[in-house]
Predict the 3D structure of the following.
Amino acid sequence: MSLLRSFRLRLLLGSALGALGLLAISHLVSILIFRHFRAQLRLGSTTILVLTALAFIAIGFTQIRRGLSPFDELRRRLAKVRDGRSRRLDGTYPTEVAPLVNDLNALLEHREGIVARALAKAGDLAHGLKTPLAVLAQEAERAEAAGQRELASAIGEQVERMRRQMDYHLAQARAAASGAAPGAHCSVRESAEALARTLQRLHAERGLRIAVEVSADHAVRCEREDVDEMLGNLLDNACRFTTSRVAVAAERKGDRIFITVDDDGPGLPAELRDRVLQRGVRADEAGPGSGFGLAIVRDLAELYGGSIALETSPLGGLRSRLDLPAAETPLSSPR
């Protein structure tokens, strides 16, 4: 039954049945002609008729194949949109297919507009919340200066908690919108190198070395902001716990990109690796951090159809292994 749902098979079957009908009519006509003009017909005439019939059959099948080619082209262009190589279904299509392509392009533009508005709303929300939080933080500083340390500590703790929650949920909202947008594309090396330069300046007094060994053609189907968020959290953790060296590498396997961040620090016990990926859980309660960094990485990766895993690093410390969908080639206009 599934074969009968194939448009290609139905078209071929319909053409074959139509050809059989025409063949039956032609056979009847040929019989009549043969009866009336038996003496005039020769073997050569019969051969010419057979060759002509075969030529018409070949031309017919060629036309059927050409008629189906726009659907194959449409499927290839849809794959480009899915892989982040294009944002629209460009090209010229037959009049029967063009309305479908126009509707799909309108849908893509509508979805892109929704994403843009969602991102703008997330930015407005962040801006609206940061100002009152900054005011509360200033009040905490004034209370501490006035000797009310207990009150200042309580206010400061709640302000920091609200900031962490805001960053976490805004990152989720942005990623949910970005993951729905077609054409998402980001170079892993560009993101990693920019983050490495920033973190090396922040940890300049420690003399940390951050090596980025990522091929220029390694790109993922994610928005740049979300890749920066994921890699930034992983690199920040590595820099905080490493002794002297951090390494970033990437490898492509099929349609996946695997990004690894290694450090030569103390590592993390195997029994804690799954726990620290949960929201609010920290491996080092005495050190700085909110416990949301790895949870944000996990949630962002899952929204893009990826994952994050923690392993033992060849450098002796911890390895963070990020799995994300690969993008084929860079878009014509750089992001």
In short: The domain at 184-335 is CATH 3.30.565.10 (Heat Shock Protein 90). Residues 283-290, 330-335 have pLDDT under 50 and may be disordered. The helical segments are 7-36, 43-83, 98-145, 149-180, 188-202, 224-241, 270-273, 293-303.
